[in-house]
Amino acid sequence: MRRPLDLRHVISPSLRDLIELANTHDFDRVNEQVRDLHGCTNPVSLYGWTVTTDQTTKEVVRSYRSEDEPSGRLLTTCGNRRSSRCPACSRVYAADTYHLIKAGLSGGKNVAETVRDHPRAFVTLTAPSFGPVHNRKTDSTGKARSCGCGAQHPEGDPALGTPLDPATYDYTGAVLWNAHAGQLWARFTTYLRRALAEHLGMTQKALTAALRVSFAKVAEYQKRGLVHFHAVIRFDGPDGHTTPPPPWATFAALRAAVGLAVERARLIVASDAIGERVIAWGGRYKVDPITALGDGELTDARVAEYTDAKVAGYVAKYATKNAEGAGTVDRTLLCRPCAGRGYVRGPDGFHDRCADCDGTGQAEPIKALPIQQHVRQMIRTAWDLGHLPEFAELKLWKWAHMLGFRGHFSTKSRAYSTTLGALRDVRRAWRLAQAEAARARAGLPATDENTTLVTASSWTYLSSGYRPGEELLAAQVRHDIAHTARLKHEGLVPA
Q1: Torsion sign across C-alpha atoms 484, 81, 324, 155
Q2: Under DSSP, is residue 182 helix (H, G, I), strand (E, B) or coil?
Q3: Closest Cα to residue 217, out of 119, 308, 314, 136?
Q4: E strand or H helix at 436, and its extent?
Q5: Of 162, 178, 192, 383, which sits 20 to 30 A from 107 (CA to CA)?
Q6: pLDDT tens readout for residues 404-444
Q7: In Å, how far are 79, 322, 330 from 82, measured between CA atoms?
Q8: What is the CB neighbour count within 10 angstroms for residue 338?
Q9: How much of the chain is helix, strand and coil, in % rounded to 5?
């Protein structure tokens, strides 16, 4: 019987845990599990089993139990799309998003390659002004001009995007705009079809029978803390990407319809506390054509840069961002024990002040957050509005750290292209193929393609994160990944 290790002389908890892992019955497997996570920062620990059997012979083809692992659990990636939370998983999400957007522009992934000949536009929609802010202005020649404050702000100046006069800035309007931006986008897509029918001089029924409008969009935060949307909009025939749109469905018609929809799409928000507000798009929007790579027909360098690959890259980059670009925090401010209410129900049924947040409902006091005053005021405004009865359904206290925005960061129409789920299925099928290849190399019989397999499993969530010793192994994995990427960038190893 092995004597327990005496590690009292090892001061570092991480090193002590690593030594314990190294003395398990299979340290190579511990290392393999961590490496298979490819640098995930917050993996999920699961306990359970899975068994795959041949339905005809009842023979067990594959089986797995987490209790057979050296650590007694299975580690799997967190899958978080936000680069601020998990750079490794966000890279996978960005890659999937890139292929999803690219397939809708160039074909592939079960999308017809003829879509590259359909009218496509890269559209940017912005929020209106809620007060003048510090900015970097340029004239028509690109020469820098002075800001409204009289200064010329350098790139990266923390003052950029903050109000010139915070006392008169419409924080209520800004937060409510963020809160309704998702609904405004949905209204825009409806008005886009109506505007297109009006521009072409036909009924909406006739338009629907001859044309389908497909899109994919992603949200991005501006420095002033307001979201704006980047969208790929494409014209298809009535059966989707497999059919060409009619000749009269041109980019010029798309651009005109976007302009009309931007002008007409609006929402009305009424409240006794703040009166009536109109939620509408800002007057600054862009509609640029997307050209297939290598067209080379456009002479305007600014427009010509919007190729299939570059647009897909832009959208993929935005899809992994959150509100951190506006200087806010990437975590909810809700006190979990009281769910932001500030009180908990005691044994006697009465409301007792929550001891964790001292009745504020905030996991962290807003006044103590390490953020700029402009962002702090938007968070405070969202928190206060969320507790008004007329805005209760918006749950603004839950989304205060997002400055009120509560919509999906990326969405697409059903017929735009493939789905993220389908891309994950392809990756899963590739792993199964690799497993079959490993079986063949080990001399085991291959699974018959005509065999019907049945999988049963049971899994329980245990925790999130690494053990201290595993974190050291993960840090080495992240270092190796970064080092390899640097060598590829410098051309020292094949890409």
Answers
A1: positive
A2: helix
A3: 314
A4: helix 420-441
A5: 192
A6: 998 888 899 988 998 888 888 888 887 777 766 766 776 66
A7: 9, 6, 9
A8: 23
A9: 40, 20, 40
